[in-house]
Amino acid sequence: MAKTFSLGGDDRVAIIEGTRTPFVKAWSEFRDLNEADLTRFAINELINRVNIDPHEVDEVVIGCVSAPMNGPNVAREVVLRSQLPNEIPAFTVQMYCASSGLAAINAVGDILSGAADTAIIGGVESMSAAQARITLNLTQALNDASRARSMQDRLKAFSDVKLADLKPDVPSIAEPTTGKSMGESAEDMAKEYGITRGDQDAFAELTHHRAAKAFEDGRFPEVVPVITGEKFDVVVDQDTMVRGDTSVEKMGKLRPVFDRKHGSVTAANSSPLTDGASAVLLMRESKAKKLGLKPKAYIKTHALAALDLFKHAMLLGPSFATPKALGRAGLSLKDMGLVDMHEAFAAQVLTNVKVWESKELATKIGLDDRIGDVDMEKFNVNGGSIPIGHPFGATGARLIMQLAGEMERRDVQYGLTTACAAGGLGFSMVLERG
Amino acid sequence: MSNAEKLVTLNYEDGIAYICVDIEGESVNTLSAKMTDRIEEILAEIKGKSGLSGAVIHSAKRDFIVGFDIREFKHLKDDPKGLRELGKRGHAMLKSIDTLGIPVVSAIHGNCLGGGLEVALACHGRVASDHKSTKLGLPEVMLGLIPGAGGTQNLPRLIDLSAALDMILTGRQIPAKKALKMGLVDDVVHPDYVVQAAAELAKKLHKERQEKPNLLEELVSDPASGAMKIVAATPARSLVFSKAKEQVMKQSGGHYPAPLKALEVIEYGLANGLEAGLDKEIEAFVELIQTDVSASLRGIFFMKQEADKDPVVSKRTKPVDVDKIGVLGAGLMGAGIAQVGASKGYNIRLKDRDAKGLGWGLKYANDAFQKMAKRRKISRPEADIAMGRISGTTDYRGFESCDLVIEAVFEDINLKQKILADVEALGNKDLIFASNTSTIPIKDIAAKAKYPKNVIGMHYFSPVHKMPLLEIIRTKETSAKAIATALAVGRKMGKTCIVVEDGPGFFTSRVVGAYINEAGWILQEGSSVEAIDNTMEKFGFPVGPLKLVDEVGLDVAQKAAGVLGEAFKHRWDQPTALAAIAEEGRKGRKNSKGFYLYGKDEKGVDESVYDKIPGGRKRRDLDADVIRDRVWLAMLNECAYCLQEGISDKPRDIDIGVIFGLGFPPFRGGILKYADHVGVQKCVDDLNRLADAYGERLRPAQILVDMAAKSKTFHTED
Q1: A18 domain-assigned
Q2: What residues contact B373, with CB distance under 8 A and at least 6 apart?
């Protein structure tokens, strides 16, 4: 076979190792851990497992969607609070659910440009640590009051504050431009593309069963046990939301959440609100060789894409980004030994798969051709975000390490991972071995 | 400048006289007779100068002034007249500052201790830097002394009486922010601005003085108008003093005369005025410096200083630059080592068998950091940062890249050999492996080692963050690099280190074993637990031998006794009483069952301990003098054996070890210092007499007999 294109040519970007905390339901076991706490579990374990001298790390890039107000550059806070030396530059990136995918792309760029040899990328989300804010009206009134010189002025500052302004502004996950929640977008997709409740529940069952089996068979070595709780007696050593015993029948009892009357998207066929963090060690191939490290895989190509969300279904990002990434690699979907797609919703996964396989649907959204047939035996083989969970910032790095790990296990030449993100964004990455 | 040696320089700038203390060739500034003269000289020069609006005293070193150079006391202690003279000259110098005619302000950065603080107190104002290293205190009591340059009089006239008493009686050192709150300093500023801020304060005081000359006169001539002010000037102060006295007696057991003397001097000064108080201060100082207690405490100070600087191995041996320490076992010791290591900046990989054990250790460390944060010793983020340096695991991943691994697992030779093999199998042949065993010979642990030169003992004491000693054990094969590394790590962790040769129980466990063993015999022969413990506490130990066993754990003590009993069976017989009590399942404090009662009625001895030993609950106490001599001489005898067998060849290290590791009473100066004081011949005679009466184990070691015959002492007086 002719040699295909890889980023970096003969000196590629290697994926050395990945680690992540277990992914747990928001406001549960990790409720007392903030973003930096969670991320350092993953990063401290990562550098210890690799036995790398942390001084070798040139940069840390962390994806986080809802960065904490006190320390929004999570990456830097983690460097300062972990076993990493304080001298490592660190920055935090945001691209909604593809944030840590973007973190990886940033690090790849720095390694290719020569700005770095070794980078830790990762992501984190703590729904539990997300604070409700006071409303903007009330904030402005408080500011005015603090600057006021007289009691009268101070009182005047509050004259425009209405009763509703006193209610805390709970962070929402609605997409700001369309005003629709992700779930509503998934509902729209299901209706537009004719994805039934039965299809969705069947997919949810499949992915739950696969994730449960993967755990059982030890295919998630990247999961780092976390000891937490006030007495440090709560041990979380695996994802807590995987249901090996779930079934279409059981899920059938749930009522749709976003369109209670005509809807099909339920809590069971969606990814749950999740707390968790992930980290991956990336390194220039030649440096890994020098340090005697054995890469799991290499990053061959990647692509970001965005669609016009006034024209197309918002969560179709994978259909736009994937042909770009494959095209850059000079490969097609059938060359991929494994394919992983982020599962925001079963409806979103199935819609994208449908588009990939159908020339008609693909050209309708403006693609030149269909992407190819999806072999479900190679697709999300160890489960995805529906059973494992979806800490927004952490999922991209989770996808990369999960795919690289399985490629190593199966010794697969090429693999693809892809994710949709709010705002009509898409992320795809092609990995290779050997 | 007339002095050949440079001590202080003087500069004028913008109407301010800058007095810069900077002793040439020394790392710190200390006060001395020469320094007093030089400052007087400078003050006289300033006095003759017109147009000045203030003076600033500052330091060119990392610290302000760290106190009087106590080396000077060595040749003055037997010269009361000379001492009195020195004290008077000191007081005169402080008076010269006070009456200079312009305001004098000290600019304090770094340590400002003892005489240094007394100089600052004599000034009209004080500005401190907000740096971590800035500490103000009067630590003289720690050397069995009291402040001798007006500190006992000026401090209670500046700040609240009870706060002043606390500082003088405990030697507590006050950080800048707290000093500001207490009124001890007038301002706290950035370290690089402290001299300028002091000059500004001097100018401000000068201006006030010109505007309201009378007010300032009043303040200067009668500083007792402010703080103590309310309490100190009224009869209510006798209440404060009697309470303080009670507290001192409770804490010192009456063994330390200095705090009581300090109280007396302060109270006298408040009742009879500043001048009378200063005279009394000199008298008390002269009296105290001639006491054995002060000599002992000063001796310990010097011994510690020497031990902390002793390179032990060739100075050319470079220690490994340790970045990450692996700790095996997250129990009390392992977690303690991890916590102290992390707080000093080491990355820690902490392993335990399972998540439960690991969680216990992580909680222990986190609790310690939270406590430090609560007491404002560190900030909340600093506590978080320190905790982030500890990474827990239940497997060996991450240990290969450790520079040093310290094992603190259960005391079991097979287990220790196995984990050493596990660690060596990781393939890092430079990794130094230290055992925190308290009794097992290091060479036995290293018996099957691939790299025995990397194996060493690092014996920490519990609780690790509190106990100041680290006993480092080297085998015949331990490399100089490993020793240098253990020393560097131990010192960075804030420990005073002694390096001893290998053997069962090395040094400290052997000696404490003798202490407990003899107590066990006395118990078995019929004495009560109280009689034994009270006698030794009265001797000056923080806890008696049987209480100590409760704290350590009877199971742990028995395990150690087993190793020691086996190793020294030819001369060291063991009582059956302790074993019998341990066999009942009593483990001491940790299972609330031991010699003493725990829980709600945590008072007194658990009478049921007597049920399993000869004599039952009816006890017949031995004379306190006999108990005392048997126990401390048994310890001394074991120390002598250690010298004889070459476990240590440094009396200094033995004394440091018993004081910092085993709680031997500091006011006695160390066990060998005390033996010198008692007389080696008398120790030998007493031991022989006790051996005849109570058993051959008390027969004096040959080295003692030889020393007595040649009238030699352990320490040479210099």
Answers
A1: yes
A2: B379, B380, B382, B383
For residue A177, is it within any domain?
no
CB pairs under 8 A between A and B: 57
Confidence (pLDDT) at B532: 97
**Interchain CB contact of B317 with A (< 8 Å):** no
Angle at B311 between CA B307 and CA B315, to 5 degrees: 165
State whether residue A267 sits within 8 Å of chain B by CB: no
Query: How near does any CA of chain A get to the CA of B362, in Å?
Result: 7
Q: Which of B366, B380, B391 to substitute to test the interface with A, most A CBs within 10 Å?
A: B391
**pLDDT-based confidence at B316, cuts 50/70/90?**
very high
SS3 A418: strand
| C-beta atoms of A225 and B389 within 8 A | no
Identity of the residue in A80, A232, A237 whose CB atom sits nearest the CB atom of B385: A80
Hey, are the CB atoms on B349 and A48 less than 8 Å from each other?
yes
What's the domain count of chain A?
Answer: 1
Give ipTM to 2 decimals: 0.92
State mean pLDDT over B72-92. Answer: 88
> What pTM was computed for the model?
0.93
- A126 close to A226: Cβ distance less than 8 angstroms: no
CATH code for the domain of A300: 3.40.47.10
Joined together, the tokens standing for residue A270 give: 């969606």
Task: Provide the shortest C-alpha distance from residue B400 to chain A (in Å).
Answer: 7
Q: CA–CA separation, B22 vs B657, rounded Å?
A: 35
CB distance B184 to B158 below 8 Å? yes
Residue ranges of E strands in A26-180: 59-63, 90-93, 118-125
A39 Cβ under 8 Å from any chain B Cβ: no
Residue B193 CB contacts under 8 Å (≥ 6 apart), including other chains: none
Lowest mean pLDDT among A165-179, B116-130, B482-496, B621-635: A165-179
Residue that wins the pLDDT comparison between B636 and A164:
B636
Residues A54-106: pLDDT tens digits? 999 999 999 999 999 889 999 999 999 999 999 999 999 999 999 999 999 99
B162: contact with A, CB 8 A cutoff: no
B401 touches chain A (CB under 8 A): yes
Assigned domain for A363 exists: yes
Q: Which two tokens stand for residue A282?
A: 């990336």
pLDDT, tens digit, for every residue of B390-441? Answer: 999 999 999 999 999 999 999 999 999 999 999 999 999 999 999 999 999 9
Q: Which residues pair with residue A276 across a beta bridge?
A: A125
Question: Tens digits of per-residue pLDDT, B109-119?
Answer: 999 999 999 99
Answer yes or no: do B360 and A232 touch at CB < 8 A: yes
Sketch out chain B's domains with CATH numbers. 8-290 (3.90.226.10), 324-503 (3.40.50.720), 513-709 (1.10.1040.50)
Domain that holds residue A379: 13-129+271-432
Inside any domain, residue A169: no
Q: Which amino acid is at B481?
A: K
| pLDDT for residue B214 | 64
Residue A181 has pLDDT above 90, yes or no: no
